[in-house]
Amino acid sequence: MIIRHATTNDLNLLHRVERECFAKDAYTLKQIAFLLEDPNSLSLVALVNEKVVGFIIGQIHDSSGMRIGHVCTLDVVTKYRRKGIGCQLLTKLERLFKEENVKDCFLEVDVENVGALSLYRKHEYTELARLKNYYSKGVDGVRLKKRLAT
Ligand SMILES: CC(C)(COP(=O)(O)OP(=O)(O)OC[C@H]1O[C@@H](n2cnc3c(N)ncnc32)[C@H](O)[C@@H]1OP(=O)(O)O)[C@@H](O)C(=O)NCCC(=O)NCCS
After folding, report:
1. Ligand 1: does its nearest atom lie under 6 Å from the Cβ of 89?
2. Which of 6, 11, 58, 103 measures 20 to 30 Å from 27, CA to CA?
3. What is the residue with the minimal CA distance to atom 22 of ligand 1?
4. In this predicted structure, what is the pLDDT of residue 92?
5. CATH no. for residue 136?
6. Is 118 in the pocket of ligand 1 (CB under 6 A)?
7. pLDDT digits (tens, 9 = 90+) for 115-144
8. Per the confidence metrics, is the pTM higher than 0.85?
């Protein structure tokens, strides 16, 4: 498995993977295009035999003089799950965040997304807040945080 930076050439494939991963609330093609082009974004793609099997997109923002990381999406195609690809994408993104002086990393996830919550807990993310109706009416989210700076 190879991880490399994503480019706009990957757009259609990333959108396909995003739609496979999120039956509801998937990022649109336009939103992914925006994220790939945004200078505040860091986007990584995982390839097996030159085939896209997953990706992660994060963003860096300044908040009160601190650099804050945000994981926008993490996707691994069904066939390649539970092989450590999600973990490796997240670890690499966190490393890039650290190189950019990011102190804290945040993300939101559906409270019922057991697999993702389990992965993030394994990566030492802790719950910061419950987000009522975050995704849609009756679908709550949870905001997680990890301290990256030592
Ligand atoms: C969540 C997701 C990215 C995980 O990717 P993955 O490559 O399968 O994750 P990994 O193989 O690196 O898993 C690492 C650990 O996370 C936990 N984990 C991952 N998926 C899990 C699941 N379905 N159930 C329980 N634990 C899970 C396990 O502890 C796992 O370690 P193990 O396999 O040794 O037990 C993938 O399932 C996915 O794309 N889901 C749909 C999109 C999504 O929900 N994205 C995250 C929200 S932003």
Report:
1. no
2. 103
3. 115
4. 98
5. 3.40.630.30
6. yes
7. 999 999 999 999 999 999 999 899 999 999
8. yes
